[in-house]
Amino acid sequence: MEEEEALPNMWFLSSDDDNDEGDKEEDCQSRRQRRSKCWEGCGRPVATCICPLLPPCPIPTSTHVVVLHHPQELRTNKIATLPALCRCLERCSLLCGRRLHPGASPLLDSLSAFPSPSSPVLFLFPTIGPSESAIDLKRWVSHTPYASRAEPVLIVFDATWRYAREMVAASLPYLERFALQVQIGDGCDAGMEGASTFESDVVLRKEPWKGCLSTIEAVARALRVLEPEERGPEIEERLLAVLRAMVAFQAVHLTPVKPRTKLKKKGKVVRE
User: Fold this and answer.
1) How many domains are contained in the chain?
2) DTW domain: from which residue to which, for each copy (predicted)?
3) How far apart are CA 243 and CA 39, in angstroms?
4) pLDDT value of position 195
5) 3-state secondary structure of 122
6) Model pLDDT, residue 44
7) Stretch 175-201: mean pLDDT, rounded?
8) Domain span at residue 170?
């Protein structure tokens, strides 16, 4: 009986069934290809590999970039720009944690104990409210002799904006001893919405406020100012070219959301 019950399943196989099986196999292969990553290169999915746009050799800079990234950032943020940034820059150090403190970085500990006349320590984070203060990086450079900033150390915080603010606040007791807070331009304006991928070719995801930048864009803008004049713009553009490629891949899978109308009482119509 078991053999007789199994026969109908075999007899009813048709050419259509064969095609279905073939389609399923192709779909599985396509999914596997999308899931596979470029482990030896950019670390992104093979379908969105940006290795051809990365510098063949890391870019040398006089600035040493130190990035404190939140433990969850690289695990949860699938479009993080930090891996690409690290592949681009020769002098880029990563620290994983929620705050900077004595013992977290031998380099920072050394500069804290023995400040270097040519290596000022700056930490890049924008002001968001009137109670916060940071100096515009461009202004700081224009008022600081080159000999006193020949090899600066730039600290950057990589996380969501909520976590980044917490990380900066937790790190201040340590940083205030030897580091200066700087920002790009006027910082953030919490009263205005940030740009989205549909409005800019360097925005991977919608930012909460005007003036918010991704990690790689913030570093690119900073290096334009910190590096010598003949090198700064070139380094900025090379980093932004990588970011634009990432945004282009991301934009392909996004669909603009049209505002919906919502009827309210008394005949008023508002946009959601």
Assistant:
1) 1
2) 34-255
3) 19
4) 54
5) strand
6) 74
7) 72
8) 46-252
